[in-house]
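SEQUENCE AND FOLD
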Amino acid sequence: MKNFKKKKISIRWVVALKEEAQIIIDQFRLKTFNEKTIYPIFKNEEETHWLIISGIGRSNAAASTAYLYSFSKASKHTSWINLGIAGSDKGNYGDLCLVDKISTYQEKKATYPSTMPKTTLPKMNLFTSDIPISDYSTHELIDMEGSAFFDIASKLVSKEFICLMKVISDGPQNDIKEITKSKISNLIKKNLSNIIYVISYYERLSEEESQIAEKPELFYEITSKWHFTVTQSYKLETLLRRIEVFCNKRDLEDKIKSCESSNSVINVLNSKIKKNIVNWSKF
């Protein structure tokens, strides 16, 4: 039999600057494409991690997120990650923060991303601006991409699969004009262990959702031997999900190996289920 097993983990990174992305590219051994793309895109050999460098600003963040979704054929169980630097006077310079609220000048209502539970990492509100801001007094975190990334990503997956991580890079004591490429890279590098800790949660989330959505193992083997219509395929999947609770793979294979058509397979599985229905009146 062919191996129909699919990749489980699916992570997509949207990062504004190469300096923010380089540590992630190195850590997950991402390679760039030989073909020309609108935005720089990287992926690992297993194609479980993809990363796009969006450039600065909301329009770039929105367009690159949509582009990566289409280009990489991201699934519904993909976790979407926005990593970057942010200004703040509420947190400590160099801290990695998770975003649990997003606001902008343009939107009257704030949006509320789900965040990783049971973590000691600080969770802060993010304000996304179209221009650099040096007055930090009215916002916890300030960036120029987060809201647009979240707006697009939340149309692609449920919000529990979306994560915004920001490293505090400037504030009242750290002038935004003093930010350099090397400082950005160092800030991300110093937080690598925390970033990996967060990503491991979103990898597990993606894998678990993939397993829930994945068709039963026997589905692919059966449909490779008999022709099923769309309606029959749906019925087959439903029957297999019910049967696998009380019947092992070898037993099922023995039951259907003599079937001559898709209809006879479905009839055999239906019969197997009926014979195993629990009669609760006996208890």
